């Protein structure tokens, strides 16, 4: 706006104040564009809205007098849908490269570039300081793992299988299946209550299977207790020794300084080709996005170029808005709060466990998830054991998993004994809970109270025998 021209309508002194206020907003936007770093302080909603409206005007579909004669011109029928996406309807990527700008979608391309830059900064803040490159993929973690595997296939054309340390979540298994590889499952080893990586078994497979037939080793950081984070440092050293790619499933590990330290150390001491994390689990945005990152810029670029076609900008836009709204300071506080909540949840569970003759399983290698024994469940059918989770859900407790260690399940053609427990012969049924980022202390209090009352109800009804 030409404030000088507006002096014909309003007093110059008023306009100077308004102009200074607008300049302060413009300066913050300019700083973001120049530095491409996550701001310390979060932006106000009004500032974010002004910024997004300005970006949206850069897309050709929002040009005044624009006429589109192609098959894809960013037309949106519903005003609600148009508003939901801030008028950014062209998506991201071009000709199968997720990070390449579009000439018709300068605004959407800018969102994509900024989100990737701020995500890289966020990963470094979490503790993975030597990360070199990343991009936000408009697919959740499982599909992102599959995208990395598909890229590796072209670099290792004779590869046939993936060596995978067992974690009982279907998404990783199906990611391997979708990519067309066989799965070599390495079961966990039991050390006290905790389940750990069988590094010796991994090396045995590395020496048994021809190197050219192994596409990579997949390890996992964040997971459900009593499974500990994988010993990715030792595995990374093996991968470096045998020249095998190493892919880390870091689904919700960015919120854990321990997970991030493991990845950083593994990259320093051995080999980590890429690590994948969820946007929703780490940054509290809607489900649908992931961040693929690594220590070799060229390899991460290769993965982004392997994506077929254009993609939705929604996950990138959601993350950009959230990061700018949150700011570094608030994020660091959320990380600190999560650590405190983990300790609060652990101590509260111990009190409930003592009351009901149970115990919190000792899993020092996992500082996100906790396992609560259900050793007094006897003589129940499989579905009756897991009904405890349904009872808790009826009391509006979500995210709690009840594990029947006797369960057998076939997933993608592989039979898993003790499905859900990450081990073929774990001795004790249990339930798991997690202290995730954004959890409130009051939620912990409510959960502990409802867990206590639910266990008491089970005993009264004779479903638990002591």
* Helix and strand element order: HHHHHEHEHEEEHEHEHEHEHHEHEEEEH
Q: Which descriptor suits the 3D outline?
A: globular
Cα distance spanning the termini: 76 Å
Low-confidence stretches: none
Which class do the helix and strand fractions yield?
Answer: alpha/beta
Strand order of the largest sheet: 1-9-8-7-6-2-3
Helix content: 40-55%
How would you concisely characterize the structure shown here?
Helix content is 46%, strand content 14%. The protein has helices spanning 3-6, 12-35, 45-56, 79-84, 106-126, 141-155, 170-178, 199-208, 232-242, 257-269, 279-283, 297-305, 314-355, 382-394, 441-460, and strands spanning 133-137, 161-165, 182-186, 189-191, 194-196, 214-220, 246-249, 274-278, 290-294, 369-373, 401-403, 408-411, 414-417, 430-434.
Can you put this structure into words, describing what you see?
- With 466 residues, the chain is an alpha/beta fold.
- The protein contains 15 helices and 14 strands.
- It has helices at residues 3-6, 12-35, 45-56, 79-84, 106-126, 141-155, 170-178, 199-208, 232-242, 257-269, 279-283, 297-305, 314-355, 382-394, 441-460; strands at residues 133-137, 161-165, 182-186, 189-191, 194-196, 214-220, 246-249, 274-278, 290-294, 369-373, 401-403, 408-411, 414-417, 430-434.
- Strands 1-9-8-7-6-2-3 form a seven-stranded mixed sheet, sandwiched between helices. The protein has a three-stranded antiparallel sheet with strand order 10-14-11. A two-stranded antiparallel ribbon has the order 4-5.
- The longest helix is centred in the C-terminal third of the chain and has 42 residues, at 314-355.
- It is globular, with a radius of gyration of 25 Å.
């Amino acid at each position: 706006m030409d404030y000088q021209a507006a002096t014909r309508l309003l007093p110059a002194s008023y306009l100077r104040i308004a102009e200074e206020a607008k300049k302060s907003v413009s300066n913050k936007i300019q700083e973001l564009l120049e530095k491409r770093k996550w701001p310390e302080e979060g932006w106000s909603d009004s500032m974010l809205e002004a910024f997004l409206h300005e970006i949206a005007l850069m897309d050709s579909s929002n040009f005044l007098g624009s006429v589109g004669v192609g098959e894809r011109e960013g037309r949106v029928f519903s005003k609600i849908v148009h508003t939901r996406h801030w008028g950014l309807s062209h998506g991201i990527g071009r000709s199968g490269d997720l990070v390449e700008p579009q000439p018709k979608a300068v605004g959407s391309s800018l969102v994509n570039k900024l989100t990737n830059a701020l995500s890289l900064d966020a990963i470094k803040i979490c503790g993975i300081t030597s990360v070199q490159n990343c991009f936000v993929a408009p697919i959740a973690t499982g599909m992102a793992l599959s995208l990395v595997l598909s890229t590796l296939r072209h670099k290792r054309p004779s590869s046939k299988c993936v060596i995978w340390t067992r974690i009982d979540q279907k998404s990783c298994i199906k990611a391997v299946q979708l990519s067309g590889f066989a799965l070599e499952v390495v079961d966990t080893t039991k050390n006290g209550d905790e389940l750990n990586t069988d590094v010796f078994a991994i090396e045995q497979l590395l020496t048994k299977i021809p190197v050219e037939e192994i596409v990579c080793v997949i390890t996992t950081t964040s997971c459900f207790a009593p499974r500990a984070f994988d010993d990715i440092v030792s595995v990374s050293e093996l991968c470096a020794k045998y020249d095998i790619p190493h892919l880390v499933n870091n689904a919700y590990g960015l919120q854990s300084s321990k997970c991030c330290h493991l990845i950083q150390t593994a990259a320093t001491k051995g080999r980590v080709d890429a690590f994948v994390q969820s946007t929703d689990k780490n940054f509290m945005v809607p489900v649908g996005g992931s961040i693929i990152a690594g220590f070799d810029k060229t390899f991460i670029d290769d993965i982004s170029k392997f994506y077929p076609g254009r993609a939705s900008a929604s996950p990138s836009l959601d993350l950009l808005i959230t990061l700018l709204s949150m700011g570094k300071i608030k994020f660091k506080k959320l990380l600190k709060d999560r650590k405190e909540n983990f300790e609060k949840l652990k101590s509260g569970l111990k009190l409930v466990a003592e009351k009901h003759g149970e115990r919190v399983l000792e899993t020092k290698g996992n500082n996100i998830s906790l396992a609560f024994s259900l050793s007094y469940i006897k003589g129940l059918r499989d579905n009756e054991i897991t009904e405890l989770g349904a009872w808790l859900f009826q009391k509006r407790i979500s995210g709690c998993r009840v594990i029947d260690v006797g369960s057998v399940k076939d997933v993608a053609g592989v039979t898993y004994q003790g499905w859900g427990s990450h081990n073929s012969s774990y001795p004790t049924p249990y339930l798991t809970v997690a202290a995730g980022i954004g959890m409130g202390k009051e939620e912990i209090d409510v959960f502990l109270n409802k867990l206590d009352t639910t266990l008491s109800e089970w005993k009264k009804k004779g479903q638990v025998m002591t």
